[in-house]
Amino acid sequence: MTAPAIGIDLGTTNSLAACVGSDGKPAAIRGADGEVIVPSCVSFAESGAAIVGRAARRRAVEDPRNTIFSVKRLMGKGIENLTEIERRLCPCEFVPAEGKLIKLRIRGREYTPQEISAMILREVADRASAALGETVTKAVITVPAYFDESQKQATMAAGKIAGLEVLRIVNEPTAAALAYGLDGLHDGVIAVYDLGGGTFDISILKIESGVFRVLATNGDASLGGDDFDRALMDLLIPLWEKAGGSRADLADPGIIQSLRQEAERAKIQLSSSATADILYERGSYPFRAAIAREDLEAAISPLFERSLGPCRRALADAELTIDRVDAVVLVGGATYTPLVRRRVEAFFNKKPYDALNPMEVVALGAAVQAKKLEGGFRNLLLLDVTPLSLGVETYGGAVDKVIARNTTIPARGKSEYTTFADNQTAIVFSIVQGERELAKDCRPLGQLILRGIPAMPAGMPRVEMNFHIDSDGLLTVTALERRSGAQAKVEIVPKHGLTLDEITRLVLEAAVNAKEDFRAARLATLRADAEFILKKLDAQMQRFGGRLDAQTRREIVEARDGLADAMRGESGDAIDGAHQYLEDVARVLVELTMDDAAASALRGKLV
Ligand code: ADP
Ligand code: MG
Question: Active-site residue 194, yes or no?
Answer without folding.
Answer: yes
